[in-house]
Amino acid sequence: MSDNTCEIGSIPELERVMQAAKDSVTDDMVSRLAENGAQALDLLDRLNRSGIDRALPVLSRLVENGDLQRIVDIARAVAAAEDAMNDDMVGRVAQMGAEALSVIDRLNRSGVERLIDILDRLNNSGSLDILADKLPSMIKHIDMVDQLAGCLTLGAEDARKLPPPSGGIMAMMRLMSDPENQAALQFVMSIGKRMRASCGTGKG
C-alpha cells in the first residue's frame, strides 16, 4: 500500500516539474527547436537521397585499412604546399607550364614524329647501333671534311682564274716540271691509292 501511495503522491510533483519546464520555454526557444528539428529532418532526407548508405561501407574499409588517414595526410601536404607557394612561385610555375606546352606544340609542328619513325626503323634494323659506334670517329673527322670542302672550293676558284691550256707536249712538260705541280700530283695519287684500297678493287 505504501508503494502505491508514493507513486500516487509523486504525480502532482511530476505535473509541477512539467509545468515549470513549460513556463521556462519561451516562444523563441520553441521556434529555434522547431527550426533545428526541420533542418535535422531535411539533412536526413538529403543523406538518404544522396546514397550515403552505399558510401558508409567504403568509408568503413578506408578507416580499417588506414587509407583514410593517408588521404588526410596527402591533403595536409597539398595544403601545406599551397600555403608555402607565394604569388611569384605560382607565376613561375604557370610560365614553365606555358613554355612546356609551347615546346610540345613546336615539336608537333616541326614533324618530329617523322624523325621518331626514322629512328625506330634504324633501331629495328640495327643501323642505329652501327651509327652510334661510328659517330665518335665521324665527329673526329668533321674538321678534316670541312677543310677538304674548303680546298675544293678554293681550287675551283683558282682554276677559273687560270688561262686556258695551250695544249701540246711541251706545255705538258713545262707543267710537270713545276715542283708544286709534282707535289700536288703525288698527293692526288696517294689519296687515289687509299681510296682504291678501301673500295677493295684489288690490283687487277
Write the layout of secondary structure elements.
Layout (H helix, E strand, L loop, with lengths): L1 H23 L2 H23 L2 H14 L1 H18 L2 H23 L2 H14 L1 H14 L1 H20 L7 H8 L2 H21 L5
Q: Give the overall form.
A: rod-shaped
**Helix-strand sequence:** HHHHHHHHHH
Helix share of residues?
A: over 70%
- What's the tally of helices? 10
Taking all residues together, what is the mean pLDDT?
78
Radius of gyration: 49 Å
Number of domains: 3
Give a quick account of the main beta sheet: strands, pairing sense, barrel closure: none
Structural class from helices and strands? mainly alpha
Annotation, overall tally of beta strands: 0
C-alpha termini separation: 146 Å
Which band does the percent of strand residues land in? under 5%
Low-confidence region ranges: none
Characterize the structure shown.
With 204 residues, the chain is mainly alpha-helical. Helix content is 87%, strand content 0%. It contains ten helices and no strands. It has three domains: 84 residues, no CATH class; 34 residues; 39 residues.
List keywords for this structure.
204 residues; mainly alpha; 3 domains; 10 helices
